[in-house]
Amino acid sequence: MNIRIGHGYDVHAFGDGDHVMIGGVRIAHDHGVLAHSDGDVALHALCDAMLGALALGDIGAHFPPADPQWKGADSRVLLRHCQALVAGRGWRLGNADLTVVCERPRIGPHAQAMREAIASDLGVDAGAIGVKATTSERLGFTGRGEGIAAHAVCLLVAA
Ligand SMILES: Nc1ccn([C@@H]2O[C@H](COP(=O)(O)O)[C@@H](O)[C@H]2O)c(=O)n1
Ligand SMILES: C[C@@]1(CO)OP(=O)(O)OP(=O)(O)OC[C@H]1O
């Protein structure tokens, strides 16, 4: 088999703060998120998708929330670590597709910058990275503005 599919999902609750990190992009906001790292829900979902594609466990197994090394960590560092794991096993990213779920902030104005940041970290063209967003029509925890969720899928191709 020379392709592998992966899926990831992550959630972070809003907390005090003046910005959120999403898809490697800093977005000014009236809340931050509660997290051990920088709380980049989109990159965490993508890390899990890449790890999942090779059945390598999940993000918490590789970057334990109890490990002070990851306190405040830039999630792009985690993503590059996952990329190195994938490459070291003879795989490369074919494409990835992300969906961020929140009422606010608006993701659309930042989607291209997110695609470029992710593509840069994964060594692919931005055309291989989809970034989309949706509200949840005011339903559920995202709809009530309690947090942000993100979904990611990816395809790995034998290098
Ligand atoms: N946080 C968000 C949520 C949505 N968008 C954009 O708005 C479009 C419509 O959202 P609905 O939830 O009403 O379907 C969506 O397709 C996105 O383009 C956004 O940028 N940021
Ligand atoms: C990223 C890690 C790093 O310790 O912590 P958090 O920022 O809390 O994020 P989460 O999505 O809960 O994933 C677990 C951890 O790997």
TrEMBL record:
<comment type="subunit">
    <text>Homotrimer.</text>
</comment>
<feature type="binding site">
    <location>
        <position position="144"/>
    </location>
    <ligand>
        <name>4-CDP-2-C-methyl-D-erythritol 2-phosphate</name>
    </ligand>
</feature>
<comment type="function">
    <text>Involved in the biosynthesis of isopentenyl diphosphate (IPP) and dimethylallyl diphosphate (DMAPP), two major building blocks of isoprenoid compounds. Catalyzes the conversion of 4-diphosphocytidyl-2-C-methyl-D-erythritol 2-phosphate (CDP-ME2P) to 2-C-methyl-D-erythritol 2,4-cyclodiphosphate (ME-CPP) with a corresponding release of cytidine 5-monophosphate (CMP).</text>
</comment>
<dbReference type="Pfam" id="PF02542">
    <property type="entry name" value="YgbB"/>
</dbReference>
<comment type="pathway">
    <text>Isoprenoid biosynthesis; isopentenyl diphosphate biosynthesis via DXP pathway; isopentenyl diphosphate from 1-deoxy-D-xylulose 5-phosphate: step 4/6.</text>
</comment>
<feature type="binding site">
    <location>
        <begin position="58"/>
        <end position="60"/>
    </location>
    <ligand>
        <name>4-CDP-2-C-methyl-D-erythritol 2-phosphate</name>
    </ligand>
</feature>
<feature type="binding site">
    <location>
        <begin position="36"/>
        <end position="37"/>
    </location>
    <ligand>
        <name>4-CDP-2-C-methyl-D-erythritol 2-phosphate</name>
    </ligand>
</feature>
<keyword id="KW-0414">Isoprene biosynthesis</keyword>
<dbReference type="InterPro" id="IPR003526">
    <property type="entry name" value="MECDP_synthase"/>
</dbReference>
<feature type="binding site">
    <location>
        <position position="141"/>
    </location>
    <ligand>
        <name>4-CDP-2-C-methyl-D-erythritol 2-phosphate</name>
    </ligand>
</feature>
<feature type="binding site">
    <location>
        <position position="12"/>
    </location>
    <ligand>
        <name>a divalent metal cation</name>
    </ligand>
</feature>
<dbReference type="InterPro" id="IPR036571">
    <property type="entry name" value="MECDP_synthase_sf"/>
</dbReference>
<feature type="domain" description="2-C-methyl-D-erythritol 2,4-cyclodiphosphate synthase">
    <location>
        <begin position="3"/>
        <end position="156"/>
    </location>
</feature>
<feature type="binding site">
    <location>
        <position position="44"/>
    </location>
    <ligand>
        <name>a divalent metal cation</name>
    </ligand>
</feature>
<feature type="binding site">
    <location>
        <begin position="134"/>
        <end position="137"/>
    </location>
    <ligand>
        <name>4-CDP-2-C-methyl-D-erythritol 2-phosphate</name>
    </ligand>
</feature>
<comment type="similarity">
    <text>Belongs to the IspF family.</text>
</comment>
<keyword id="KW-0479">Metal-binding</keyword>
<feature type="site" description="Transition state stabilizer">
    <location>
        <position position="135"/>
    </location>
</feature>
<keyword id="KW-0456">Lyase</keyword>
<dbReference type="GO" id="GO:0008685">
    <property type="term" value="F:2-C-methyl-D-erythritol 2,4-cyclodiphosphate synthase activity"/>
</dbReference>
<feature type="site" description="Transition state stabilizer">
    <location>
        <position position="36"/>
    </location>
</feature>
<feature type="binding site">
    <location>
        <begin position="10"/>
        <end position="12"/>
    </location>
    <ligand>
        <name>4-CDP-2-C-methyl-D-erythritol 2-phosphate</name>
    </ligand>
</feature>
<dbReference type="InterPro" id="IPR020555">
    <property type="entry name" value="MECDP_synthase_CS"/>
</dbReference>
<protein>
    <recommendedName>
        <fullName>2-C-methyl-D-erythritol 2,4-cyclodiphosphate synthase</fullName>
        <ecNumber>4.6.1.12</ecNumber>
    </recommendedName>
</protein>
<feature type="binding site">
    <location>
        <position position="10"/>
    </location>
    <ligand>
        <name>a divalent metal cation</name>
    </ligand>
</feature>
